[in-house]
Write a structure and sequence with these properties.
Blueprint (H helix, E strand, L loop, with lengths): L35 H11 L4 H10 L24 H11 L5 H4 L3 H5 L3 H5 L8 E4 L6 E2 L2 H14 L5 E5 L6 H13 L5 E3 L6 H11 L16 E5 L3 H4 L3 H10 L3 E5 L5 H4 E2 L5 H6 L1 E2 L3 E3 L6 H18 L7 H7 E2 L1 H9 L3 H8 L3 H13 L3 E5 L1 H4 L4 H15 L8 E4 L7 H5 L6 E2 L2 E2 L4 H9 L11 H6 L13 E5 L10 H9 L3 E6 L13 E6 L10 E4 L4 E5 L13 H12 L12 H11 L15 E3 L18 E2 L14 E7 L3 E2 L2 E2 L13 E4 L1 H6 L7 E5 L4 E8 L6 E5 L22 E8 H7 L4 H12 L4
Parallel strand pairs: 3-4, 3-15, 5-6, 5-11, 6-9, 10-21, 11-12, 15-16, 16-17, 22-28, 25-27
Antiparallel strand pairs: 1-2, 1-17, 7-8, 13-14, 18-19, 19-20, 22-29, 23-24, 26-27, 26-29
Keywords: Iron, Iron-sulfur, Metal-binding
InterPro entries: Asp_de-COase-like_dom_sf, MoPterin_dinucl-bd_dom, Mopterin_OxRdtase, Mopterin_OxRdtse_a_bac, Prok_molybdopt-oxidoreductase
Organism: Paenibacillus xanthanilyticus
Length: about 775
Amino acid sequence: MGRTKHTGPIKLPSKPDPKLWVSKMPFGLGRVKPRHIRETMKVMADNRDNLPYALRILTQGVCDGCALGVSGLYDQTLAGPHLCTTRLNLLRLNTMPAIKPHVLHADIDELRRLDSTELRKLGRLPYPLIRRKGERAFSRISWDEALETIASKITAIDPKQLAFYLTARGITNESYYAAAKVARFLGTNNIDNASRICHSPSKTALKRSVGIGASSCSYKDWIGTDVLVFWGSVAANNQPVSTKYMYAAKRKGTKIIVINPYREPAMDGYWVPSIPESALFGTKLADDFYQVNIGGDIAFMHGIMKHWFEMEQREPGSAIDRAFVAAHVNGYEALRQHVRKQDWEKLVRSSGLSRERIAQFAELLARSKSAVFVWSMGLTQHRFGTDNISQVANLALLRGFLGREHCGLMPIRGHSGVQGSGEMGADPFSLPGGEFKGEDIPRIEKTWGFALPRWQGDIVGVSLENALLPDAHERKLKLFYTSGGNFIETMPDPDFVRRCLESVDIRVHQDILLNTSTLADAREAVIVLPAMTRYEQPGGGTSTSTERMVYFSPEIEGPRMPEARPEWRIYTELAAKVDPDRAALVQFKDADAIRAEIAVAAPNYDGIQHLKRKGDVFQWGNAWLCEDGVCPTPDGRGNLIPVELPELRKPEGHFYATTRRGKQFNSMLYGAVDPFNDAHRDDIIVSRKDAGDIGIQDGDAVVAYNRHGVFHGRARIGDVAPGNLELFWPEGNILLAQGRYEPMAGIPEYNIAVVLEKAETYHAFKDTRYVEKRIEELETEAPGL
């Protein structure tokens, strides 16, 4: 992988730099921005019943929020303490008391009146629960009875009718590994994880382009790179501590470029609370915004490469790192011919950017000696997500931005546990340390001591849809076992998802709290199992950050849910109930034993067995993967991949729509108003030009609709690329199409074409053929969106 070791945290400059200030007005008074001090005080008040425990979590545990890898209050990138409102908001999940019995056992319709935010505030799950068909409330059940009920169902069905899913809710590598092993022990390959709906295209694309499934570089490489590009990523909102890295990069002279349809205020300027200068006056983060159309990134990148090849024709070596390409890259001529055939007019129309703007960015990269490309769901959540990422890899390979300091490809994760999920094998296409194919299968069979099922497992979306198959079908989903997750609020078409969940015989929710999916009916029973948090897990646990840092998070002294169990142990106890004669094959004495086995099963993780104390950490693959341009591909070279331009046609008056995040952590909402733009959850962000064209004023009642759903909201005029709309997630999911997956990585499509109208117009004509005609135009003219 890489030879160079990470050199540890660096210090921030001590002197201020007024050139980077957003405003001379202290604390951003009068501006729309997060109020960090107010938020901190609120969190302290929320946790006042367990404040000492909360402080121990913050100072001893590894952050259970984003995947930056903050251990205690420190990380491996910058010296000094780091703390953000995302982590503070999640704190209450670990310190709150149990749900009161009269609430927990209330009539199910009483609970269904609550949204997920209200359900979350009820408290922790105290003991196992069951709600059988026809019952109006959950009743208490013993652990033995719960596991016996689940085990009896597993033995009665075909293993293909069983599916597991693990979210990234503070779940440790140990739990992912145990689940992956137990699933295969029980005969099923239907096991998936939260990366399926965020970064699965990143892994797929990086594997085919450069042979890796994770970030090639470290966060330290941001600091001092010539250009830091955020592509479809709003790190300031989703990974707030990263703003400190951006601040440090700016102080080193790095240019920060954001490529996104919406000029996200969080990336324009940010008040970093733990840097006095920034806390007072703010920091200008982005040097420029390139506001592409939704789905227009491939066209934009074709344009960049087309301009490079034109530069090369005029002056060889002016745009392409020819030495790097010759030594380390395949497919140059095929890509060059493919890109040269692209039509400039089509690239401009599809990207939404002028030829001049595309050339400007192309020349900036051509002049740069180093660059780091960071991306997130703005690139991945498309039906062509893998091609999006392959295009990013093409840019990096052509310029040699790989395998050295201040260069790299970084799919920035949003959850602290999710990088390790596939690496531990909790994925239908993966096994610990490899893929579900070839020599990796017998290798893992030798390590585990039992044969693996050889059929291909399903991604979670398909598993859910399989619940609607006829009862006799071999893949009819009859038992769905989910650790965390709320599919009603994370998947497209919530009504369809609810129907799928309610068509399963037995649904098991292993979790720390209730959510709206837990309350859905089942054909036979819903079973709820109370899990420990990562801070309660005996023997501690590990998590893997975006930059491949494997951190040890110790067990932290504090109050406990008396009947909650470690997630990894629940899986092994279930396996023992199903097959007691072979149970020893999947039993672990303790968390140390799991880590010892991980080190054998996943060779990159050799070192995890030595993590035992607070602060212990190692980085698998070292500072840079593909160091010196040598990739872990069969021939050691990276692959340039010609990518086709997706069709994005739409008729006049129709829009591309996508979803964005506000004051939330993934699907968990923490406020009704976005602190960066003052928008409400039902606001639809529309450009001033489009609003003028269709006669909409700021604050008008509007309707966005298509054949999949209708969204009633308010117009919020904002700096978004014309022809594009931004809605909040998950509220906007009602407009999304179910069953539309990216063919290579299986991620659902989270972008759609819609009609936007004044509410009065929509309601005036909704009983005529007007709406149907508008939808028909949309279906005819905008295939695939």
